[in-house]
Amino acid sequence: MTLEKILWSTEGLLRDKNGDGVIDGVSIFVDLPETLMPLGLLDFFARMGLETTALSYDFFENSGQQAVMKFEPSDATEARFEDGRLTCFYESEEELSQLLAQLAAGGQEEREIADEPKNSIRSLSDIWSFSGFGSFDEATPHHELSLNIEVESALQTQGLFKELCHFAARCALYSTSLNLPVTKNEEARISFCITQGEETELQLVEENRFELTGSVDSCPWALQTLNNSKHWSQQGEFGYWEQEMIVNDKTEAELWYEAEWEDRSERELVLAAIEDTGQLPGNRLEVFLSEPLTARKSFEKDLLSEFPDVETAVVRSAFKAGFHWIREELLPNLDPDCTGLHISVRKEANKGGLELPIRWIQELYPIDSIAEKETHLKADAVTFSLHNGQESTYRVEALFADGRRKEIGALEVPIAKIPYITRHQFAYPSTGAVRLYQDQELVREMPVATDRERFYLHYLQEFLPDLQKKLADFNSGQGYDRPFFDRIEIEVTMSEEEEKLFVDEERTSSLEALYEDLYFNTLDFFANWGVEESGVPFDAPGGIHPFMHIHEGAHPAAAIRVYQWDDRKPLQPKTVRIHFGESGEFISATISGDGNEATMPVRKQEIGLPGEGTSLGHSVIADHSYKGLPIPVLEYYIKSGETFDSPIKLTLFKKTVVIETGHHANEVSSTPAILQLLENADRYTQDLNIVVIPNSNPDGFALLQKMTDEHPEWKHHAARYNAVGLEFAHVRYKPTIFGEANVLPLVMKKWAPDIVVDDHGIPAHEWVQPFAGYNSPPRFPVSYFLPSAKIYGIGQVSSGANKELHQRNLEALVQSISSQIAGTPIAEQNDYWKQRFTKYGHEWLPDVFPIEEAPHLNFYRQQTVTPGYPTVSILRYPDWVAADIISEAADEVVYGESLESCIEAHILFNLGVLELLQKQQTTPLGSGLTKYRERPMQFKF
């Protein structure tokens, strides 16, 4: 073995301190004579930084290191390594420098790395960035160090020289390849100069060129401060002045525009409609009213008292009319000898309607489970059939063991025709009505618009167009990557159906349905405006925050408030000078932006971080949300005990997974699940690096907490996006004021992971939108009307590079996740929900209610389900990301046992990922100045 190969191994200078098979330290005492400053030693230190994943500055202090470096004058220049002693014999300092440079470059294996993104110093805060030395426009597993160091001769002291050695080592620590030499290299990409100056300061001369000025006494202290500083994300002070400026730049949105609405109640409209008929032409009164059962029963008595000529009065629900009719009128009178119920349902056929053909089956959900809960029948004894042109909406038959069928009721549901957002499209929701019968024959019918219907039409036809006019003078980019308004708050008060059914997580809630319509239909209103304006939808109009208040007997009323958006360019501060004090400490930084300069004091970000003080990794703050809340990232790996660690180097030696949770804040189980799973992270860190973004949307989470105060079990989709209603995944990798959008790109640049996992959720109970076709929103290509599983997966593969490899990797992941779920209660719940999803959807419309089966769970690979926007990691980086998957648990919004089962489901899903990745073999290659491993990985199950 050559001297160079010995030196750059654990037999020489390198150490595996924690025994995990990864070099995480350099153990050498460099006994440098006072008069000696060979430039080649800077190359040697750069090589030491390249060879390790962690280091500390103990090279010039004798603290019992396992190797010692000695320098001895001689009549020949050579190096010897014996018994842990590296002796460099030299004739002259110049020849010694050449010898050290040769030792640094020794053992190099030639390998061409494809043209990769390069790091840059555009701001002095980039020197020690979130991802190491320099900043990257794009993530890459290959970090090349191309650095030239120059020192004015009058400043050359050994104290400064030693600090330059530390600087070279730390810069190389964050690199996977090294461009030598690091002095007298005019072709180097980045230049660092040290020159004389009256003030001790670090200056950005131009992009990729920075300069330390000062005196012979101050420069070593200043460089020592720079060398020892840590990035603000690690609770250091470096660069925090810029982040502080960004956070402090935020202002609270002001009220800009408001409107109010109120109207008569449905009860008053019903009474007025009956009174307008004059003498009642019938003896039976049938009313459809959007009120809770207690209010409807009370109103029945009022009608009989108010109109004595009426013999009978029945007040039925105008919301999910068929469900309530069967539950309230048929099930209590069910023949105890019947063995089943068959419900014949009319197929929906309204022209231009958004409703699915099975809309009237959907409106029965979950009547079969209610029948099992409240009668002697089992849920599977309740069956449906669909019929074209059936006379009534529903016809119900009781079935008997001897084959008899007995019709026990029929119902025609009144409907309204409501315009949708887009032209020539309509919704046909059930509505209120008064029907007069004479001897079972209908003699008159009078429609009565529900409170929800009348307010929704006001909002759609008056408020939104008026708001659109007020927003007409918008700036380029608004509606796409930043909003028109900060938020719309919609306060609605009505007397409506609201009941927890105690079947799964189901409830009947007409105001939750209105909430969902207001939220999603407003999004579609602006999306349609964008299409009409430019052919591209406005998908980021602003936050839409409906607050629904249920008060029995209340008159319907609403208040709408729009808050101003201050449309400014994202603040992109650039540090041009860092000022040092008399002892070399940082005192202030001068920041340039928009042609102005400001000076900020240097101080640390003081915030407690989870996970500190443990033997596994640590926590960092990647960025701050739009509202200024810190967004932590948990990094699980075996600590080395050294001062500085290199994530990009750790990824080179160990497989790495990034798991994002809490992206949509109303999907509540992923964050507690990952924190619980990683209480036992030490099971994996011998083989893996695990990086977690535990709460990637803190502003959305804050809104969720506000909304769940009044309605703790609603889905609260308004809280899934960020503070201004933006799906921030769409503005990742762009200059943005939304810090939450920066976090995953920063993590990708820092860790270059093999697998990216995004843990999500779906509604835990029925998703009802009467004013959008009853089904979940038209903007979704498939239906989310009811849960399809306790948990399912979505797999993404690239469409070009490495497509087949990605497909094989995905199938290996599916098998691994399936094996974790097999035999667990989650598998049983998945089977239960698949049956429910089939009965109410897939059986009738398999394309709208798709099922892509894998053992024990659904796993979707089709493009109709998988997101395809360019910020998806495997689509952006197909050359090195090996897999990119999403989990979806039925957790919008759940508590207690339901939450615990969703947590367990997420844990099993992520265990499948970790277990598979842990089994894979990967070997770093290259023993010279370029370190690499073959990527993307190929998984074997």
UniProtKB/TrEMBL annotation:
GO terms for molecular function: metallocarboxypeptidase activity; zinc ion binding. Pfam families: Peptidase_M14. The keyword Protease applies. Gene3D superfamilies: Zn peptidases. InterPro entries: Peptidase_M14 (IPR000834). Keywords: Carboxypeptidase, Hydrolase, Protease. The keyword Protease applies. One of its GO terms (biological process) is proteolysis. Residues 623-719 form the Peptidase M14 domain. This is Zinc carboxypeptidase. It comes from Planomicrobium soli.
